[in-house]
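User: My collaborator sent over this chain with a note saying "see what the structure looks like." That's all I know about it. Can you take a look?
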Amino acid sequence: MFSPLTRPQFTSLLPIIVLTALVFLLFPFAALAEAGAASSTITIPELSATFYGYAAIAVFVLAYSLVPLENTIHLLKSKPVLFAAGIIWILVALAFKDAGIPDQAHSAIKHAIIEYAELFLFLLVAMTYINALEERNVFQALRAYLVTRGYSLKKVFWVTGALAFVISPIADNLTTALLMGAVVMAVGGKDVRFVAISCINVVIAANAGGAFSPFGDITTLMVWQKGKVEFLQFLPLFVPSLVNWLVPAVIMSFALPKGTPKATNEKSYMKRGAPVMIFLFLATIVTAITFHGALHLPPAAGMMFGLGYLGLYSFYLKRIEGRTLAADSIFGGIRESHQHPLSVLESFGEDVGENLNDQPYPAFVLDKNHTVTHWNPALEALSGVKAEEMIGTKNHWKAFYQSERPTMADIVLDDNTGVGIRQHYKNIYRDNPLDGEAYDAADYFEHLGESGAYIMFSATKLKDSDGNTVGSLEIMEDMTEKRANVKEFDIMERVSRAEWDTLLFFYGVILCVAGLSQFGYMAIISELMYSDLGPVWANTLVGVLSAIVDNIPVMFAVLTMDPVMPLEQWQLVTLTAGVGGSMLAIGSAAGVALLGTARGVYTFAAHLKWTPVIALGYIASIGVHLLINGSGL
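Assistant: Without extra context I'll predict from the sequence alone. Here is the result:
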């Protein structure tokens, strides 16, 4: 027994309806070709009217109809299209064999595989870099920064939209939408109306931002790699893309609830090497552009060269983290659930020194003259130095260092600027999340323990009831065992975390469309759209179809048709395919991703309510493009 379809399930079947309509469009023309109708002005390839061609269309429609049902039937989208690609190319091979040209299928599929290989390698490198930046807490740090600002709901709406528009041209629109969506949900909390409208805004902005950059969307990447639009020729799409976002954003902003939610105390820090990886990612993009523009080599080759940058740097980073620097792996590995040692101050207050003997954390206290006043048993056990040897002296440095130098407790006692901390603990310290005048650091101490130890240590000033500084406290934790459970950066692990289902889905789609083109169906559709409707209306229709079907197969179909169009029209179809998906929640990867993460709040129905407004932005962006860039006709 099958349960009745819910509204989202019914809506997800829209692609089937559209594809079926295309089939009914194709069949009559194929029949005309078979009958040799003289009245038809369309040249129909002979194979379009064969059983093999009809079967190929049926297989593709049935397979693709399962893609939008992925979350309902729990079947990965790559599986049905991979299966369909295999069946379609069997049909192609049989059709060519019957036509007496059996070798044609081999050369045709090789061409399709080469096209996919270039896209695959490019995306694999981009995904690896995004995963590496995520592992280095780059996106988490940005999110933490935004949710602690105390912005009003309206300001969060505009900030997240603007950042989505700016970030997506470099990162992909999916990653950008997930990042900004997380900020929206963290700030909006239970305010359903704010979260829903802001998620729609993020989806529109991420898709619009990706439309004027070869790196912002799969469709722009395909157009660039095909050589239809060169790198700098995407830039004229900036203003139309901006209009596409701003028009609906301005209208939706009037529906936002008022208020300023309380800022959270969330803290997150980028790990060691994060800024370098950001630079290497940008350098990789420049390399890909140079390979394509100056050396006339595939951009994918430049991206793979850039993966070598990351590989060499990861080797250096792994060696550094593996022996001389524990700070990043310690902070990154335990922060979320770990109780900070300095939390003892909250319960003991001014009497903290007298209560240190009962603490499991090694600690010592200095008075304002830098003389040791307390040295607890836990520190005796860690350092091997008895309290009576230290109390009343200024020799506490001997427990940690071979030559005299200030400890962190000494520095915080005298330094109000942070200069001393930066001088002595460069790259291995952070501001303490519990106390604005305290610091944390982590390092390897080869003389502690039986064979060295990784220690996290924190220091803060101690004050009396009047707020006067009376000394300082340094408290430690032996992280040697915990650190063993924290993985160091591994580039191969980042490669393995690429979106393999998505990459295989692209293979299936590209091979399916390439197979259908062998039967002549892409030529038929191209003639119907670009000759009968004209390029402006045809390219506008491409955007509408991309909201219902998916922009990747639609754009690959356009590239396979390869209609004769001027640059301005290739720019237009790049724009429409990129931003058209914003009209429906299921029309883009960004929308589908937020449907999952903001489940029950950002819904298909909530997005559909604003579709007329989004469509207004879509039309406006097309008009602006034709106005400032021309139509080329």
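A starting point for your reply to your collaborator: Strands lie at 363-367, 372-375, 429-431, 439-445, 453-463, 469-478.
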